[in-house]
Specification:
By secondary structure, the chain is α/β, with parallel strands linked by helices. It has a domain of 171 residues: Vaccinia Virus protein VP39 (Rossmann fold, 3-Layer(aba) Sandwich), CATH 3.40.50. The chain contains 10 helices and 7 strands. Strands 3-2-1-4-5-7-6 form a 7-stranded mixed sheet, with helices on both faces. Helix 6 links the parallel strand 4 and strand 5. The radius of gyration is 18 Å and the shape is globular. The N and C termini lie far apart (41 Å). The relative contact order is 0.18. Bound molecules: S-adenosylmethionine.
Length: 245
């Protein structure tokens, strides 16, 4: 299985119980929905959502904006869960890094999916090319500082962390010079490090960085000890707004 197939399989396996554990995604979706709702958009806009998951953002925005929506994800199971929760929009499997679409949109939106892209600037360029002249591409993604406690607990032990190195906001600004970025930072509490790792797996986000060698049971136990119990985990979300005009 290549990495994209691994990511799709992990999210598909998680689709059924995803929302029981997707606390951070719900907080980010609330914030992003407000940002999107504040943008100028035509009446009944044409909207593409990518990486919809079970539809946390869809349910916050579709009833509010109305219009004609194409809601998409890489994972068929996620897409089915989203569709059964909110009939109305059109649902379709789309790899947002290579969107094979011949339509254009007033708005392209996405919550917490772009961190799975192999090449963010390339994907953003392809997506932005599907915008109408006054359109907006608005998405959230994890930025550096996220899971800082998890990373630190590995570092003090000299261990390699399997969580990807998320880009700094400055790096995002450099690679996406046309973007406006709004930052959101919050902490979530966990019983311990094991509960954090379990939550990532529960939502299907446990696929490690390519080439990561899994830690031994003993190494992982030492990471959990280092984190203590209970522990907090920081989420630093970059909300990226790219406007065509
Ligand atoms: C963390 S979930 C977020 C889901 C949802 N937007 C939410 O806020 O709960 C990430 C989603 O992105 C999807 N995804 C990952 N890579 C993708 C890609 N290249 N194209 C489309 N969807 C992708 C996954 O299948 C998964 O449903």
């Amino acid at each position: 299985m290549n990495r994209k197939q691994q990511v799709r399989a992990a999210f598909s396996a998680a689709a059924r119980f995803y929302e029981e554990a997707a606390r951070a995604q719900a907080i980010s979706a609330d914030f992003l929905a407000e940002l999107v709702a504040g943008l100028p958009a035509p009446q009944a806009p044409k909207v593409l959502e990518f990486g919809c998951g079970t539809g946390l953002l869809t349910r916050r925005l579709y009833p509010r904006l109305g219009g004609e929506w194409l809601v998409s994800d890489l994972s068929p199971d996620m897409l089915r869960a989203a569709e059964s929760a909110l009939p109305g929009p059109r649902y379709q499997i789309v790899d947002a890094e290579n969107p094979d679409l011949d339509e254009s949109f007033d708005l392209i939106v996405s919550n917490m999916a772009a961190q799975w892209f192999a090449d963010l600037p390339e994907a953003v360029a392809r997506l932005a090319s599907r915008l109408d002249p006054a359109g907006h591409l608005v998405f959230s993604t994890l930025a550096a500082g996220s899971f800082r406690q998890w990373r630190d607990a590995h570092q003090v032990l000299g261990l390699e962390c399997g969580v990807p190195a998320f880009p700094t906001v400055d790096a995002l600004k450099n690679t996406l010079p046309q973007a406006r970025i709004v930052e959101q930072t919050f902490d979530l509490d966990y019983a311990d490090g094991r509960a954090f790792a379990a939550e990532l797996k529960h939502i299907g986000a446990g696929t490690p960085t390519p080439g990561h060698v899994p830690l031994s049971v003993g190494q992982l136990r030492r990471v959990f000890q280092g984190l203590g119990s209970p522990c907090a985990m920081t989420y630093h979300v970059a909300h990226v707004i790219i406007s065509k005009e």
